[in-house]
Amino acid sequence: MVSEQTQVVSRNQVRIDRRALRHNFNTITEEVGPGVAVMAMVKGDAYGHGMTETAAVLAGCGCRIYGVAELVEAVTLRRAGIGGDIFVLLGFVAEEAEQFLLYDLTPVVFLHQDIEALSQAAVQHGREIGVHLKIDCGMGRLGLLPAEVPAFKQRIDNLPGIFLAGIMAHLPEADQRQAASTPQVFSCFQETIDRLGAGFTGVRHIANSGATMYFPGMHCNMVRAGISLYGCYPDGGASDDLGAGARLQPVMSFVTRVAQVRDLPAGSGISYGHTYVTTRPTTIAVLPLGYEDGYLRDLSNRGEVLIHGRRAPVRGRICMNLCMVDVTEIPGVAVGDEVVLLGRQDDAEITADEIAGWMGTISYEVLCLFGNNNSRIHIDGKR
After folding, report:
1. How many CB atoms lie within 10 A of CB 319?
2. Residues annotated in the binding site for substrate, as ranges?
3. Can you tell me which residues bind substrate (predicted)?
């Protein structure tokens, strides 16, 4: 009889290193200095790292400001006991304005209907609520155009129960240190605020991870640390001249275990479509994961994994729940051996940026794919 206490877990496991997360937050905080607040971006389930768990770890480091995309994420954090300021960056449905008062949340605004709904809710609760205004200075996404800002601010000033606590914008190319748009967008941001005169004394923030690491002159009162918190570099690099970036540590690793080892003769086709055919007697290790687990078909015949501290190339098309790797040059591979898809094994390492290169994407997407499609465990240090 099987005990009710028996725990069955997936062989595919994403490990989140709390020690590395703490290290990254502390490093970024030290780099920006005591006069600059750090908003920890935990949207997208903390880039696949687990939103509530990540926020709790950061709270233990002294983090008091968090950024999420949607109201439901902010409410989830509050219900999980996360204190401090929680910013909702993507707006909200006007009928939900009261939730910002009930859960003490900070709205980012860019629509007249939103500030009117917040004003009404604040008056009903006998309170005031501070909002942050989103400006589009060249990103081409959400926000008011600079010319619209004075009238919008005046409307906020005229509404009861609401006040302008901050102004923000976003940099479209801060991950590229030589991009001409970055100083142009920042200049537009500063000039737009300056035209408001001495009437605005709130928080200014425009720096994402790229500007946090590469453009210290753009830190303003607060930076918004996203991918850097999780140990990746906005430009995919790790040069020694990047300040905080040179010392970041990857937080996520992704492992599985060998399901079968097979010896195939030369001329054997592997997986759907036989996109790879062996040219010699070949030892294949079959792994119990595929695109359902975020290990996408784009990695077919491109990706590599680590087994026994050595690289093994992916062979053939990746399936929904299976993929195959060539271990001919790695002796002694057996069923149950640990396989590292992302992370370090012995002296070898596969990074999220390397995987992103094989997939034709960015590290952000790799982390979200792996983290949100697999069982996560949180650890402290190496395992």
Report:
1. 18
2. 141, 320
3. 141, 320
